[in-house]
Predict the 3D structure of the following.
Amino acid sequence: MNVQKYRALLKTSQLLVVKVGTSSLAFNTRRLNFQWMTRLAHVLSTIRREGKHVILVSSGAVGVGAGRLGILKRPATLSDKQALAALGQAELIKIYQRIFRDYDQLVAQVLLTRDGMEDPVRRTNARNTLKTLLSMEVIPIINENDTVSTREMEFGDNDQLSARVCEITGADLLVLLSDIDGLYSADPRRNHMARLIPVVYDVSEEVEAAAGSAGTDVGTGGMATKLEAARICRLAGSHMVIANGKDPAVIREILEGKEVGTLFIAQPIHTIK
């Protein structure tokens, strides 16, 4: 099957997980980009009204907390991070509720931890809660519960968390919105000869080598974490797309089968479950 046919399959996605990072949500000053968040709410609310289910995995709690206190650098200690997350998460969910309310869309906060996702009972409870919220036509907004996650037990970034959410919910598609256009053959910030890779059929050593370690100052997830998310998704039977989140309308383009970003094909590759 050629790339166009794989892209066309994405049109049939019924359960979509969208992950947005701090670099999309906020400016370098840590102040939230309210205009961007409003566009995101409009896109996701429209998709929900069309009968699809949507889960939003949102970073940003630590950054929002830091912004409220005028802190521009990443927290140096785990306790600092946890404190900023506690402050920022409360602010972040209030903003999401207010913005989505303008589109008559209910949202719910869900905070998860890595150990909770690995414990069979708590994992099942999380799955049941998410499925119930979706049946109520609510958009769950998920983040890692940084205030209780230890360094050894944290996901470390929401790329992997969003992939685990796909795994437990049986999502058809994960969209990772980033500050670059997708996976390149080399780091485009350092190599002007780098080319965008439109489709990945297997996360091979060659793909890993191309990923390098392109991260940003305001987030924790580089390309390596996105490849780990791709591995999780592929094994779970979920397709994954890395795309530039400058305009949230790119989510709509992906669901329309347009060739944007990098598409990671799920296993089995002949269909979306």
User: Anything to note?
Assistant: The CA atoms of residues 94 and 109 lie 10 Å apart. The radius of gyration is 17 Å. The longest strand covers residues 15-20. Confidence is low (pLDDT under 50) at residues 213-220, 269-273.
